[in-house]
Write a structure and sequence with these properties.
The protein is built from 31 helices and 20 strands. The protein has an eight-stranded parallel β-sheet. Strands 3-2-6-7-1-8 form a six-stranded parallel β-sheet, with helices on both faces. The chain is globular.
Length: 683
């Protein structure tokens, strides 16, 4: 028998060897959540529980596989017997066995996202007369999925999106959703959301099957419980309903996916839903230095609606540096400082793969990605798509390329098909009739194009023509940023809102607006040079580093959850950037705080924060922004601050940091000491 007391700390041991009844394990960041679950499984099996009567639910197949492999090393022969996997895969197994009880043959097909898009595309084509002006099939799919996971009628989601998104009537979305259900039924098929819906339906509506499943599973273990949606929480409640041996493992501080259906209430109300619930807190952190944890603990200190937890360090911290905040002039100087910090970290013995730059939103990364690319530092994007490779960014770049090169047929084809009522065939005919050239700034060319437009396109033409007419003035005045904002205001904003679900549309608009700000940087030179540099920053560069684990990671915080790095850099801790002001408008300010907490707790050895003091405008000017409220809330004694003066040149900054500080060779820069802010002023 395994002596678990020698393998686990007291709190982990208590959770792993707990007796009967419901248990909530509040596993703070870096406290050995997976280790605890693995040993819980091993303990149950060694106690004599049949492995096939244990259900382990996770959010990724990789997590389930890792846990079983680790449990197998403790107790031989259990991995193949335990029921483990994602909610979707477990539901699929139930439905394969008993799906006929709700009208499905056991041979039903599971359709993936590509199949779903194809089916919806066919339905939209048959049901909607003007598909060009209708939301994309991906948007409709998102509406249907949101309705499913929130357990509300699709009408409610369609109505909610309609408040910001043009191009459809609610009745059309309802009709398409109904047709989609009919089509899946005819195909004896389910999509991923159906697996959850039908899995829940199977055990909630069929008493015989519910009793069978409840009797079979003696123990139910749920990983990352804070990420469960309404369907998933109900599903586990039903399964554990008889024996009541449910263990929910999670951390309310790390609930950052409410925008895709996760319900914080599931974990907060767990003790109330399960009377007699035992709550165990895992607070001993094995990941980060005491200095990083001291800062992390302040982030959630005064947050409402939480289970109080304090991260306690297990690592020594005598020589570790404090987290450092760099106050920098603007986005460009921030990018240069980050590159300098990356090089400095490497010089101190870290590998590129030990370093991550994690940010609130994709558009925060544009200057950083460009500068790292120009400095030939190997990097990888967790999204897999570079800024200039994004569909909406490429739309705007096509318009700009047409301004520079009127004979660019590829750019004309991409741009003109954005307009309502124009497909690939009519676009080709137009370009031919324009004699293979269209210069937006030329009145004669605009008149020729206007004469070729149909009724639908003419509806958007007046504002677009006015935008075209201003291109010459903007080019003459080197107002490259205004070329983009004009295009957004006159046409592209409405296009995005009409083709993408509201939250997705907002993110895309922010990204193209940031493109306008970036273009306004006078040091970038001509528009031609900018477009050339953008063309060179393709996925070829990312593919070059695809097999190279020794690359700096660029990631959003959402994509970084569950990961850790020795060196973590968090940019744009400035007002209007992080926290996202839109979150405050929508009442999601608490989730922004949790996002910052997740970002901070990814760091093992070094935590470096950046707060630009100025932001660019499309006109090329700058305006002052304050530090993030999250930064201002950090007690002065927990952080070292460096004030970096404005650089003379965006690309040749002599005002670089020269150290990580105290614990690494006594270099300067972190300030050091244990008193208040020791602010370092440097050129």
């Amino acid at each position: 028998m395994t002596d678990f007391s020698k393998l686990l700390n007291p709190e982990q041991l208590e959770a792993a060897t707990a007796g009967e009844g419901p248990i909530l394990v509040l596993a703070a960041a870096g406290t050995g959540k997976t280790r605890t679950l693995v040993h819980r499984v091993a303990y149950l099996v060694e106690k004599g529980v049949d492995p096939s009567r244990i259900l382990l639910l996770t959010f990724t197949n990789r997590a389930a596989k890792e846990m079983l492999e680790r449990a197998e090393r403790l107790v031989d022969g259990i991995a193949s017997s335990i029921w483990s996997g994602t909610f979707h895969s477990i539901c699929a197994r139930f439905l394969r066995r008993w799906g006929n009880a709700i009208g499905y043959q056991r041979s039903f097909t599971i359709i993936d996202e590509e199949d779903q898009r194809k089916i919806l595309g066919e339905i939209i084509k048959s049901e909607i007369k003007n598909t060009k002006d209708f939301p994309k099939r991906e948007v409709v799919a998102k509406m249907i999925s949101d309705a499913t996971n929130e357990m509300v009628p699709v009408e409610k989601i369609a109505q909610r999106s309609l408040s910001r998104t043009a191009g459809y009537r609610v009745e059309e979305i309802i009709r398409i959703a109904e047709k989609y259900v009919e089509r899946k039924k005819a195909l004896n098929a389910m999509d991923f959301d159906d697996l959850l819906v039908n899995g829940l339906k199977l055990i909630s509506e069929n008493e015989r099957i519910r009793a069978m499943i409840q009797e079979h599973f003696l123990y139910v273990l749920v990983d990352e419980y804070q990420d469960t949606n309404a369907l998933q929480a109900l599903f586990t409640d039903y399964i554990a309903g008889k024996h009541r041996n449910i263990m929910a493992v999670g951390d309310d501080f790390q609930c950052i996916y409410t925008w895709r259906g996760a319900k914080l209430e599931n974990i907060m109300e767990f003790p109330a839903r399960w009377p007699g619930c035992k709550t165990i807190k895992l607070e001993r952190n094995y990941r980060s230095t005491p200095q990083v944890l001291a800062l992390a603990n302040t982030v959630m200190k005064d947050a409402p609606n939480q289970f109080e937890k304090t991260l306690r360090p297990t690592r020594p911290g005598n020589t570790a540096p404090k987290p450092c905040l760099y106050s920098v002039h603007n986005a460009k100087s921030q990018a240069n400082e980050i590159v300098a910090k990356i090089r400095e970290a490497v010089s101190l013995g870290f590998d590129y793969g030990d370093i991550a730059v994690i940010y609130r939103s994709h558009y925060h990364s544009i200057d950083i990605e460009k500068t790292i690319h120009l400095e030939n530092i190997p990097y990888r994007l967790t999204s897999g798509t570079g800024f200039f490779e994004k569909e909406h960014v490429k739309d705007v770049l096509a318009y700009l390329r047409l301004i520079v090169n009127p004979r660019d047929e590829l750019s004309f084809m991409r741009f003109i098909q954005l307009l309502p009522g124009i497909g690939i065939s009519s676009a080709k005919k137009m370009f031919a009739k324009l004699e293979g050239s269209f210069a937006p700034g030329e009145a004669a060319d605009r008149a020729k194009l206007a004469a070729l437009l149909g009724v639908k396109t003419k509806a958007v033409w007046p504002s677009l023509e006015a935008c075209f007419a201003r291109t010459t003035e903007h080019m003459y005045s080197c107002e490259n940023g205004l070329l983009v904002t004009d295009f957004i205001d006159s046409f592209y904003k409405k296009y995005i809102e009409g083709h993408w679900e509201s939250s997705d549309a907002e993110e895309r608009l922010l990204e193209v607006q940031e493109l306008a700000n970036d273009l306004a940087d006078e040091e970038m030179g001509s528009l031609e040079n900018y477009l050339e540099n953008a063309a060179l920053m393709t996925n070829l560069d990312l593919k070059k580093n695809a097999g190279n684990n020794n690359s700096v990671t660029l990631s959003t915080i959402h994509q970084a959850k569950g990961m850790e790095w020795p060196v973590v850099i968090i940019p744009w801790l400035s007002d209007t950037m992080f926290p996202n002001p839109k979150a405050f408008e929508d009442g999601r300010e608490d989730e922004e705080r949790r996002l910052f907490y997740v970002a901070v707790t990814r760091a093992k050895d070094m935590l470096v924060l950046y707060s630009p003091r100025n932001r660019r405008t499309p006109e090329g000017t700058e305006y002052h922004v304050s530090k993030s409220v999250f930064v201002n809330a950090i007690p002065p004694e927990l952080i070292a601050q460096v004030f970096v003066k404005a650089p003379q040149s965006a690309y040749s900054s002599p005002y670089r940091s020269n150290s990580f500080g105290g614990g690494y060779g006594g270099r300067r820069g972190y300030g050091g000491g244990s008193g208040g802010y020791k602010t370092t002023w440097r050129k």
